[in-house]
Structures are given as C-alpha cells and as structure tokens.
Design goal:
The protein is of the alpha/beta class and about 260 residues long. Helices cover about 25% and strands about 25% of the residues. It contains five helices and eleven strands, in the order ββββαβββαββαβαβα.
Length: about 260
C-alpha cells in the first residue's frame, strides 16, 4: 500500500480537501516530531501531513528534529515523501515563482543529526549509498505533471543546504555560485538522507522565492519577501501535489518495514 508523507503542508491540511482525516500524536525514540501529523485521504490517496517548522512556524531550521520527523512518518506507514520548501536562486534563469526539482545536494550544515546510525555500540557501522539522493521516479512524475499544468519549472538542480536561520552573506552567495550550486535552502538535508536510510522515496518541490543576495540591483532576501512569494504561489504547489498523488499511488510500490 502506498502512503505519502507530505512535509511542509502547503495548505493541504485544509479539512475541505481531506477525507477521513484525524491527528496522530507520534512518539519516536528520537523524540517528538515538529507537529502532530494529520492523516487522511487526498484524491483517494492515503497521506500524512507534517508541519516541518511547527503549526505556528515556531521551529527554526537548525532546531528541527529531522530524525523524529522522518521516523514518525515511517512509523505511520509512509512509503514516499513529498517535501515542499522555499529556496533562493543562484542562477539568473531560475526566477522567483519557478518550481525546481533538485536531483543533487551539497550539505553545508554544521550541527544537525544527519543519520539514524550514529550511535556507538550498534552492531556495525552503516554507510549509506546516496550518489543519487532524490527519487528519480518521484521527480519524473513531478516534472511530467508540472509540464501538463503549464508551470514554469526546472527539472534538475543542485541545492546547497545551509544551517540557517540566517541568510547568506554576499561572499557566501558568490562562493556557492562558484560551486555550481543552482539553488539554496535550509531543510533538504538531512531530510533527504534520512529518508534514504529509512527506505522511503523522497523528492523536494522547491519554490524559488528570491535571488539570495548575489544579484546586483535585487533586494537581498528577507523573511518578508519569502512569505509573500510563497503566499502568491501556494496554490500552484497545492495543485501540483493534488494532481501527482494518484500517479504515485498507481505505481503500487509497497511500504517498507517500520523498525525506526
């Protein structure tokens, strides 16, 4: 059975959209997830919706309990994860309002728990293969659906993930550009790598909201700019998710075990 975890929400926890919904208050051995998880059906597909930053957006990126979030979705039986996020653009051609489906990441975080297998005394050291970190199957469906909907999107990108919550200096922004990063965000790592360890397929629906601070003549990014751009484009992300859910479910990829 396919069950899809949605991280970020994008307004999909609307009771008018969800069928047979209820809240789950999940405990994991890594602690509590960021929020209670709303479970129900969207377009007839089982979903679990988690507010990454908390219901009131009170948890900064550096303080999110990523392991508890992923473990909680695994416990609830999720087999796939669609994560929504705002990102800054490091390329002229990735404009504010564009959707981006990253296929690679560069981890520039500093203080996060990045693995389920980092405790001394386990049977053996685990080394996760992650050359292609994002699910190619999910990305393909997101790309095809975005094309059908007529959205402006970019089918691949390297996202550099910084610790946050502060934004980049100009020197950092130009450094990241020199590394051939295309977009910059604060949450894809370790979400992506933890989902791989938990054997769940993961893809990010990233929305470009700004040009970070590298572009001459452009106002440096602020939280107010991000909120406004996300508000302007929230319906686009919601529509994409609602259209792609039945396509994912039709793949009929079985759920993995729930040992986390």
């Amino acid at each position: 059975m396919v069950k899809i975890g949605i991280i970020g929400g994008s307004g999909l926890d609307d009771s008018q959209l969800l069928e047979d919904y209820h809240e789950e208050d999940v405990d994991t051995k890594y602690g509590k997830p960021s929020s209670k998880i709303i479970c129900g059906k969207l377009k007839g597909v089982e979903v679990c919706i988690l507010a990454r930053h908390g219901k009131k957006h009170e948890i900064p990126p550096s303080q999110i309990n990523y392991r508890a979030n992923i473990a909680a979705l695994k416990i609830l039986g999720c087999t796939h994860i669609l994560a929504t996020s705002a990102v800054g653009s490091l390329k002229e051609e990735i404009k504010p309002g564009d959707l981006v489906f990253p296929n690679q990441f560069i981890d520039f975080t500093e203080q996060r728990k990045t693995s389920f297998y980092d405790e001394i005394g386990e049977d053996k050291v685990q080394h996760q293969e992650i050359a292609e970190p994002f699910s190619s199957e999910l990305r393909k469906l997101l790309i095809e659906t975005s094309s059908q909907l007529g959205f402006s999107f970019h089918d691949k990108a390297t996202i550099i993930v910084i610790e946050g919550p502060r934004f980049s200096t100009k020197a950092e922004s130009f450094l990241f550009k020199s590394w051939n990063a295309d977009i910059i965000g604060m949450t894809a790592v370790p979400e992506c790598s933890l989902a791989r360890e938990a054997e769940m397929k993961y893809a990010t629906i990233a929305m470009s909201t700004d040009y970070d601070c590298w572009r001459e003549g452009e106002e440096p990014v602020t939280w107010e700019i991000i909120k406004q751009r996300m508000k302007e484009n929230a319906d686009k992300v919601k529509k994409l998710i609602l259209e792609v859910l039945p396509k994912i479910a039709s793949q009929e990829i079985g759920e993995e075990d729930k040992n986390l």
